[in-house]
Amino acid sequence: MRGKRQFKRFLLAVYRFFTVFLLVAFVTTCCMMLFVSTLSETLGITLTRENLNAAAKLTFWNVVLISLLLGLLYELRRRLTVERPVRRILEASQKIMKGDFSVRIPQPRLGSDESFGEIIGCFNRMAQELSGVETLRADFVSSVSHEMKTPLAVMQNYGTLLQAPDLPEERRMEYAKAVTESCRRLSDMISNILRLNRLENQQIYPKAEAYELGEQLCECLLQFEQVWEERGIALETDIADGVTVCADAELLSLVWNNLFSNAFKFTGVGGTVSVSLSADDRFAVVRVKDTGCGMSPEVGAHIFEKFYQGDPSHASQGNGLGLALVKRVVDIMQGEIDVESAPGTGTAFTVRIRRFPDEHPEKNR
């Protein structure tokens, strides 16, 4: 295969040489004929057959030499400015096809076609993006595997214990409850992974409809009534009436449920959770604050990452996907989310949502 390729290159080089030769021969012959004819008429010189034969031979070898030099220069330029960048691009493409996303192509030197520089620049950016995606994919698979192992191990262990024939009924119920809880956690994690994947791949498109945001916040809060009553958590609300938004109610409910769940989860017995809603002509602002353990700036910088859990003591109550979902939904809604927190002083999330989407510019004025 390699021999055939080299033979084809040789034939192509010969073809290019003869093309240059014929072009140079034609141009040189025309110039010489014009020169000789003008010289003969001007000086009145009669050219003999011997003179013409000698001039023709000299011209022929000059044409051969010039064609050879031009052909060599053309071939050298072509190898340096065309074949070398193409070969580098092909070699890098083959490495990427084999999974090596660290490959980068150096920019061509001066004299090369600018188009190759643009192509190589785009190729390097593509390789960089693919490298980042591959890193995220590997981290995601590793995190999912790790998160799944814990509930599966719990179910396996308690399932083995449940097989004991002389197990007391009280223990049997306790173990069965642990298995059920692990199943629920695993099911929630898989549901959140699928939902987050659909959001990130834009397979879920917001269905905007007008509704009162205050009523939705109250309905979401009522789902945690048993939690705040059992733990003696004080609930403070300052929810403005009549705040209408045009948004996807189902997606926004994910935001409020996750924020409320975190607030009650990290607030100790006797603590306080406050929820407020205010609005102007363009934005609705929801603030969820708790008096829980808070978090350091280092933890706060990563809370919107998948599977990140700043407090390992609450790992059994979640899977680190809730705030990643929240951030993605807020971005889709063209909103903003900010967090303020410090260790020992609690955490406050502030969500700003456009009251009306961009399709209603007159509402945003």
Explain the overall architecture.
By secondary structure, the protein is α+β, with helices and mostly antiparallel strands. It folds into 3 domains: 99 residues, no CATH class; 57 residues, Helix Hairpins, CATH 1.10.287; 155 residues, Heat Shock Protein 90, CATH 3.30.565. Helices cover 61% and strands 13% of the residues. The protein is built from 9 helices and 7 strands. The protein has a 5-stranded mixed beta sheet, with helices on one face. The chain has a two-stranded antiparallel sheet with strand order 1-3. A hairpin with a 3-residue loop joins β6 and β7. α1 runs antiparallel to α2, α2 runs parallel beside α3 and α4 packs parallel to α9. 19% of the residues are buried.
Outline type: elongated
- Low-confidence parts, pLDDT < 50 over ≥5 residues? 312-319, 359-365
What's the CATH topology label of the largest domain? Heat Shock Protein 90
Largest sheet, spatial ordering of strands: 2-4-5-7-6
CATH superfamily of the largest domain: Histidine kinase-like ATPase, C-terminal domain
By helix and strand content, what is the structural category?
alpha+beta
Distance between the termini: 69 Å
- How large is the share of residues in beta strands? 5-15%
**What summary fits the major beta sheet?**
5 strands, mixed
Mean pLDDT: 78
Number of strand segments: 7
